[in-house]
Amino acid sequence: MADAALRRTVGLPTAAWLESPVPASRFILRGAAAARAAAGQGFGLPLPETACRAATDGNRAALWLGPDEQLLLAPDGEVDSIEAALARALQGHAHSLVDVSHRQVGIGIHGPHAEWLLEAQCPLPLNLRAFPVGMCTRTVFGKAEVVLWRPAEQVFRLEVWRSFATYVVELLREIERESAA
Amino acid sequence: MSGRRIEQGGRVERSRAIRFTFDGKGYSGFAGDTLASALLANGVQVFGRSFKYHRPRGVFAAGSEEPNALVTVMRDEARCTPNLRATQVELYDGLVARSQNRWPSLDFDVQAVNDLMSPLLPAAFYYKTFMWPRAAWHKVYEPIIRRAAGLGEPPTLPDPDRYSQRFAHCDVLVVGAGPAGIAAALTASASGARVMLCDEQPEFGGSLLDEPTASIDGATAADWIRNSIATLRSRANVTLLTRTTAFGYFPHNLIGLNERITEHLAAPPTDRPRERLWQVRAARVVIAAGSIERPLVFPGNDRPGVMLASAARTYLHRYGVAVGQNIVLVTGSDAAYSAALDLHAAGVRVALIADVRADAAGAPLDIARQAGIDVVTGATVLGTRGRLGVREVTIGVLGRGAVNDTRRVKCDALLVSGGYTPSVHLFSQSRGKLEFNEARQAFLPSISAEPESSAGSCRGIDGYAQVLNDGARVGAESALATGHSVATQEYRVQVHEFSMHGLPGVLPQANHLQPSRAFVDFQNDVTTKDLALAMREGFESVEHIKRYTTTGMATDQGKTSNMNALAFVASELGRTIPKVGLTTFRMPYTPVTFGIFAGYDRGDLFDPVRTTPMHDWAVQQGAVFEDVGQWKRARYFPRPGEDMHAAVDRECQAVRAGVGLFDASTLGKIEVVGPDAATFLSRLYVNGFATLAVGRSRYGILLRDDGFIYDDGVIARIAEDRFHVTTTTGGAARVFGMMEDYLQTEWPDLQCWLTSTTEQWAVIAVQGPRARDVLAPLVSDVDLAAAAMPHLGVTQGRICGVPMRLFRMSFTGELGYEVNVPADYGLAVWEAIHASGQSHGITPYGTETMHVLRAEKGYIIVGQETDGTVTPDDAGLGWAIAKSKPDFVGKRSLARETMHAPDRKQLVGLLTADPRVVLEEGAQIIATPGQHAPMKMIGHVTSAYHSAVLGRSIALALVRGGRARIGETLYVPMPGGEIAVQVTATVFYDVEGARLHG
């Protein structure tokens, strides 16, 4: 694609526990149960029907955000192919599929301190019992709205609207300064 | 000199001497001392001057209940903390402390004259005296009173320290780590439940730290504490927090904790926060707050050297300090005998134990007498003497209702005890119901409002064994309530202890009108006379008496005074204590710094700073930014030597004559998709959308259900079932919320869904007669010709090879486009357009120019021309309403007669008689000149600018019956005189709109 050279993702400070954001293909799918089931067929991954749970298969993931709302994640460059596949699968099903690839950035936070860093400013309990691997939810981190997903025990992924990403990372870095304390 | 360090004992590290200063004088203490214990060890007796009368005051307690010994601790000019309790200030090398509320010195204070004038300073004296003249209050009375009566001074420099905030969750939060709290944490955590244990003191143990001779399950109290804490520390499910005060109990078991992290260190590491706010959500809370000894109320009870008996015991056992060398104990409880006996054993002379109970008898008295201590019963205190410290106490012995024997006893410390008051502060904050217990003469927790339990002496349990077992049981029960099962534990305790029961109230006096005052609230200087006066003046509710006299309203919140005040009021009114009632306990338990509430919210992290993909480009171009909500928007792009006026004039003319470039990315965008999308938008907006063709857009107005304008924007039909809705920058979130609300609650039958796309798209507005020429070389799959892409046309194609949604639209009145590209491409496309426009003189412009250009065209800005009381018709937008629609949000309200009244404020244009005069936005408008205040105001200016293209000022205004006044002259009264203005239509430039369609 000719446009790769023109792409500028949000520039963020770096940290040992921070995975630099990588461009991705993202969609918000909204629709009734039948549409979600059909979309799962097209996406190649049954969409999670349990509240606040993510489903993954290879490099694709679907996150339950609401009773009729799913966030679909896939590697960069698959927007057109996913749109086409879902259009086929969803034929005859009322739904909304919106490309939000550029709306937000995915921030990976990993390591033994990941839970501690996030718990400081997220009002939800993030211990493994309350927030097990595979859980995802919309919540707030400090003053920013985020989607928080735990793909592994010591790995969290925050999906943050792009203009809030700098704030979120700077706040994490400020919290990190205390880890010695 | 009265206090001194005894040879051995205490928990201080005698090998580590600590140097510090108090009021400029150097002293030495030991590691583990508080400022209070170290000063007492150095023989210091006067710690401060009282709030109102400037009476000399000493340290009265040993913990957070201290009412008197408030000090200022200074690290430097910016780190200067006033009103700290010396009993809680941990000593560190180089500590600099100052007493408060004294001038020129502690021992000689000029304003102690207030004390002599005290007969003239009764309760509510200030309210009564300084009422007139009213103007004098702010300028004269208040500043003087504030200087005279007061606490320490806050620092004037910004706080350089960092403060942290954390959320935490646990199964069981235990507040207070005395015997009950530790026992509760042990059983609760043994169950596997996640437990947090916090205590305001630097070490765990609470009252057990004062019991060197006690043994628990065969271990000394100190060993038991050490072992228990080691056990807790070894458990991964336990969080231990010292120096951490549970200051507030919030709904749904949210507890605020204030952890002091570096306050006690001589050289705090700069990377560590000074304090931390914990917001703990606990499934169960165990309150193990203990109890606080109650003072006795008698004449001269505030003299330095008068002290709680329990405090004297704490100073002895924890700090190795004898508070006097010749003491008298006055007590209404058995428990206080321990203090006299322990001091006696440490070699201090106990001159007398005066028991105020006529029927006192039993073990404590027998033991004291066996030790050779003189004990009298049925005693009262008639007065004390000593200018800067108690030197003599007059004891009266009561018989047959009268004082029939008085004794003057020399002493250098007078220990007092009226028994113990359970600490029910947090329980009461949780909205739990208190009940008065006659036997304990105390309010005890009764019915819980939150999932919590009290344990130990804060719920009236007396005796270490009972307290420990109560803690263990409550800990086990709390864990069980969170699904964790564990057996409770029985402790075997050996300890010398006596009952904590006592008597609240005022000691009997021979003459009701004593010359010397009996203090109830030490910190606010409230005496029994003040309370009596309040009652004589008709106040009977304890809530009124509290506010009138300020008793219990000082920074200590009456920890030592409330029960005595209540008992006094009850006895004077001839009522029982529960009939008089209790005032509300409020947070914080002890004062909390502003720092922990600010937390991370300072500097760049105060609020998220939102920037667009093209922000850095604008920064490089020297743009001046303005805040629009959380967004930074380029306001104008000054060239060297230009001020805002010059830059905006240039930018405006560039757009009108050539082409301008504007970052509109912050506008809210919502993708509305589904077979019912058009129906949904038609029900919501005043406009019709059913007939909007794919590839076309329409200006939409959104009302609240009261019929007033809420938001506006352009709505484009991308496909049959897909709309691209734009909102105002500030309205993005609330419009999305309103839409989602209607969909979920009013029209769940509609098949239509929302997705916010505000940040998906970078929006580049290219405006001006040359706009088409600039874009043409860059776009593909798009026909820009006016026939194919007319005004309000919308199409999809590519620009610079990336996908684009292109809108033909204009907020300037010129030929214009808005290029929407996925945000990551925004900067590259912006730069390409800027480069392509060079030959056309393309000019980047900011929000200020945008405002001027749209005002020249009479386009409104929601929030500037509207204020929540403006209908579409008021704003001159009645044409947008689809009359044929059966309904839309706000339609019924618009049908109300008053919404069509001819004298409603309507949007009009204003032209000043002098074209150079730019009106002030917000200025009021009057119909006739020469009015005197109050004038009849008929409207106000909403927007006013200098228009470069017109060479004069223009303004928009909301004026009563404005459209009927077009051509009239009105007046804008300003401080410099009235400005005559002519009412015009709202469109000042290109009235017929030809340029739009170029």
Keywords:
heterodimer; A: 181 residues; alpha+beta; Gyrase A, domain 2; five-stranded antiparallel sheet; 10 strands; B: 998 residues; Ubiquitin-like (UB roll); seven-stranded mixed sheet
Proportion of residues in β-strands of chain B: 25-35%
Radius of gyration of chain B: 38 Å
Mind summarizing the main beta sheet of chain A? 5 strands, antiparallel
Q: What is the alpha-carbon Rg of chain A in Å?
A: 17 Å
Order of helices and strands of chain A: EEHEEEHEEHEEEH
State the helical fraction of chain B.
Answer: 10-25%
Largest sheet of chain B, in brief, is: 7 strands, mixed
CATH homology superfamily of chain A? Probable tRNA modification gtpase trme, domain 1
- The tally of helices of chain B reads 24
Q: What structural class do the secondary elements of chain A suggest?
A: alpha+beta
- The SS-based structural class of chain B is alpha+beta
Strand portion of chain A, in percent?
25-35%
Number of domains as seen in the coordinates of chain A: 1
If interface size is counted as residues with C-beta under 8 Å from the partner's C-beta, which chains form the largest one? A-B, 51 and 54 residues
Mean pLDDT of chain A: 94
Give a count of the beta strands of chain B, DSSP E runs of length 2 or more. Answer: 53
N- and C-termini, Cα separation of chain A: 48 Å
CATH class of the domain at 163-291 and 422-494 in chain B: Alpha Beta
